[in-house]
Specification:
This protein is mainly alpha-helical. The protein has helices spanning 2-16, 19-23, 37-52, 65-71, 91-101, 115-129, 132-153, 178-196, 218-235, 243-251, 278-281, 294-300, 316-319, 368-371, 399-411, 419-441, 452-467, 470-484, 490-499, 551-556, and strands at 75-76, 156-157, 175-176, 263-265, 291-292, 320-321, 338-340, 343-345, 365-366, 394-397. The chain contains 20 helices and 10 strands.
């Protein structure tokens, strides 16, 4: 027996190629102690997209837009964030927070968590080794990530965050004030710009295909950093005079100026490994809990009596896919709560009798633009796992966003120019963005730009804008920006708290009730009885002015504050 054991060990020695390495039991070959910057960068970038986009991501972190898309009334759901019910134990809130701050990857998901930790190491290694392009990109992404955290939560760990692997060994980081963090983020963006443009840097390694946003383009990263700065200045415009900074950025020529300049994370079509947009990757199973909000549907159809009245949006077939046709004979699986032709959904906050019926083969689902789903050709076919490609990019910050920001700044008197001219350019770019996304996710879908429907829409919206008051123009700017940013709800949530626009569905307001004067009566399915009866709605909590801090953080971090009341705790720039 002893002889057999010796033979086996000898064979293992030969297979390993090195007896010393084989016997080194303190070395885990599956968890290397060092990693190069060109491996850290794509991991951090993908992690950032994962925690900010939609959920249904079995690969790791949860996307915060899942909750915020319901808060911003673009999606409806049966889950906890319906009725603004998300608490400090909400899965998507905790998952997104952990995906940002986690010190290490969760089991089986090395690329989708620990975004800030990866960026911290990326910056440290880039500076140490003279690879300043990597360090600069890391600073730009770090500043952007922390700005989002402040926008969502207010006070967050910053100065002491992600210091557990450094000499400081800080296990319980304090929560810094949001208004003290913002100036440091603006300085960090400037430092990032300086790094990527440093002609004297060693740069033995330079970003290329490992940069999943811009493939190493210094010019595009500089535009991204400056456009992020423009966004941040716009968000704090009610707290201080930022007109000089705004005017300098707009005149710099180094901000987004084309569709391809946008900060967008591109997804692919691969199923194994799954490289698709997380909002699509569980398609269609993942769609069963994500209905399209009837409020959003009504506004895009021109039903709303307050804004865009009577103007039907030509983006509808790119945004939503109806599994039913408009014909009366196209019956749903069960009695529907809200039906308008082939459109089937449920209300926010509903406690109606039809709310929980299964409608997986009848409900309207996410289309090409937000998720890479199916283009609505009006066929009414049931979706399958291969109905779309899932290749829609996550649109974190786009050229269209930059134009809407500029229009808002002109409206507020902080920038010069004609708000209508800029607003018209933003409208044009919003439609072009649909074609850009469709070209990636559904190449056979028809083009939108230049069609009679698109031209008619631009003319009618532009005419309404010209005739509107200054306040109404602000509402139109924010409403169109809200429509355009479908698929990424973080900035929508920030914009609403800053400006009060777009107007959102309120179950407490009788004029917004299902059969009220603002939202049209339900267009029922005559094949199903009871469809047109009023639907009771309720609201369990007031609108959250910020997200609750995750319970896990408060329980583990001894430096954390007491839990906030989300409906009254405002981020520092929130003056409404």
């Amino acid at each position: 027996m002893k002889k057999s054991i010796i033979y086996i060990v000898a064979i293992l020695f030969m297979a390993s190629g090195c007896t010393k390495d084989f016997l080194d039991i303190n070395t885990d070959p599956n968890n290397p102690t060092d990693i190069s910057v060109n491996q850290l960068l794509p991991s951090a970038e993908r992690g950032l997209a994962s925690v900010l986009g939609y959920t249904n991501d079995a690969r790791g972190a949860r996307g915060i837009s899942t909750v915020l898309s319901v808060y911003m009334h673009q999606l409806s759901t049966r889950e906890s964030h319906d009725q603004y019910g998300a608490t400090s134990s909400e899965f998507n809130i905790n998952g997104s927070w952990n995906g940002m701050y986690s010190p290490q990857a969760s089991q089986g998901s090395p690329d989708y968590v620990g975004c800030l930790q990866n960026l911290e190491i990326l910056i440290e290694k880039g500076e140490k080794d003279g690879n300043l392009k990597y360090a600069g990109i890391g600073k730009i992404l770090k500043a952007y990530a922390f700005s989002i955290l402040v926008d969502l939560y207010g006070d967050v760990p910053f100065s002491e965050a992600n210091k557990f692997s450094t000499e400081d060994k800080i296990l319980y980081p304090k929560f810094d004030k949001g208004d003290e963090i913002y100036p440091q983020l603006l300085a960090m963006l400037d430092a990032g710009i300086a790094d990527i443009n440093n002609a004297g840097a060693k740069n033995a390694l330079t970003p290329a295909t490992d940069d999943l946003f811009y493939q190493g383009s210094v010019a595009k990263w500089e535009k991204a950093a400056n456009t992020i700065k423009l966004k941040l200045y716009n968000q704090i415009r009610l707290t201080k005079d930022v007109s000089a900074e705004v005017k300098a950025l707009l005149a710099s020529g180094k901000i987004f100026a084309s569709t391809t300049d946008g900060l967008m994370f591109n997804y692919g079509t691969s199923i194994s490994p799954d490289d698709r947009n997380p909002a699509y990757s569980d398609y269609p199973a993942g769609q069963k809990g994500n209905y399209i909000s009837p409020w959003f549907w009504s506004i895009m159809n021109g039903y709303n009596a307050s804004v865009l009245t009577g103007i039907k949006d030509p983006r509808l077939p790119f945004y939503f896919y109806k599994q039913l046709t408009n014909a009366a004979t196209s019956a749903a699986q069960n009695a529907t709560e809200f039906r308008d032709g082939g459109f089937v959904s449920i209300y926010f906050g509903s406690v109606g009798r039809n709310r929980d019926w299964s409608q997986d083969a009848s409900m309207t689902v996410l289309g090409v633009y937000p998720a890479g789903g199916k283009y609505d050709d009006q066929s009414g076919a049931k979706i399958s796992a291969t109905s779309g490609t899932g290749a829609a990019p996550l649109k974190l910050l786009t050229y269209a966003d930059r134009l809407y920001i500029e229009a808002e700044l002109i409206n507020a008197g902080l920038a010069t120019g004609d708000a209508k001219v800029v607003f018209d350019k933003a409208l044009t770019e919003s439609l072009a963005l649909v074609d850009y996304v469709s070209g990636k996710a559904a190449p056979t879908a028809p083009k939108l730009v230049g069609t009679a429907a698109a031209n008619d829409y631009k003319t009618k919206v532009s005419t309404a804008f010209a005739a509107a008051t200054k306040e109404k123009q602000l509402e139109m700017i924010m409403t169109e920006k809200w429509i355009t940013s479908f698929g990424f709800s973080v900035d929508q949530y920030t914009d609403y708290r800053r400006t009060g626009y777009p107007i959102l569905f309120n179950p407490k307001d009788a004029t917004m009730a299902p059969n009220g004067s603002v939202q049209p009566p339900v267009k029922g399915d005559p094949t199903i009885s009871g469809d047109q009866a009023p639907v009771p709605v309720q609201l369990s909590r007031d609108y959250p002015r910020s997200l609750p801090w995750p319970l896990e953080e408060l329980q583990v971090n001894s430096s954390a504050p007491a839990q906030k009341v989300p409906s009254t705790y405002k981020v520092f720039w929130d003056k409404k």
